[in-house]
Design a protein that fits this description.
The longest helix is centred in the N-terminal third of the chain and has 13 residues. β8 and β9 form a beta hairpin. With about 210 residues, the chain is of the alpha/beta class. It has 7 helices and 10 strands. Strands 3-2-4-1-5 form a 5-stranded parallel beta sheet, with helices on both faces. Strands 6-7-10-8-9 form a 5-stranded mixed beta sheet. It is about 25% helix and about 25% strand.
Length: about 210
């Protein structure tokens, strides 16, 4: 039976793939994902590489393939429902059978590494959306704010300082979580300005 599976693949390392993600991807006719995502699976099926330039076209193509009777899996970094593939797929209003396979997000792994309870923090995603000015309504409520930055943490740090947040505020950066070169550092908001972290990071403002 044809179906579109939107599969969360976790933060990037094979260690964080769920068993159901592996078994689902192994059962389909076509797999679509970034090179980094595709490399996590040892499979012999038709594959299509997903990137920023072809993402919308590939999402539409995945729907067409399902309508043609195929089982298709789209790989979504982290969890599909948090800054993942689920929202843009649903935005296309596909009249097909869809199943979402959840994954471990980098935000979840960040909270675990820093021992932050989920119900005692605020979570904000700016990934690909620019600075969300609504963060100013949360930043001083006494809870840690876990943030997926738009691009780099320095951009957000500059915005927060310009809008009156104390430049000495404690911040944690979790970069390349689950990879061999994973890095977790704590520093002040001001210190973030001179650091060049990659886009693969989560930022926590305490």
């Amino acid at each position: 039976m044809s179906k579109l599976y939107i599969v969360g693949i976790g933060p990037g390392s094979k260690e964080y793939l769920t068993q159901i993600a592996v078994s689902t991807v192994s059962s389909v006719d076509v797999v679509i994902g970034s090179k980094r995502a595709l490399d996590l699976f040892d499979i012999e099926v038709q594959k299509f590489e997903l990137n920023a330039k072809n993402m919308k076209d590939m999402m539409k193509q995945s729907i067409t393939m399902v309508q043609d009777g195929k089982k298709v899996a789209i790989l979504s970094t982290g969890d599909p429902g948090f800054s993942g593939i689920l929202k843009p797929i649903l935005g296309l209003n596909p009249d097909i059978d869809i199943e979402v396979i959840p994954g471990i997000s980098s935000v979840q792994l960040c909270a675990a590494k820093l021992k932050i309870p989920w119900d005692e923090s605020d979570i904000v995603t700016m990934h690909g959306k620019g600075i969300n000015k609504g963060i100013m309504d949360l930043i001083d409520n006494g809870k840690p704010t876990i943030i997926l930055p738009n691009f780099k943490p320095s951009e957000l740090a500059d915005f927060l300082i310009e809008n009156g947040v104390n430049e000495g505020r404690k911040v944690a950066i979790c970069e390349k979580l689950s990879y061999d070169d994973e890095k977790i550092v704590e520093m002040s908001l001001k210190d973030i300005l001179s650091e060049d972290f990659s886009y693969m990071c989560v930022m926590v403002v305490y």
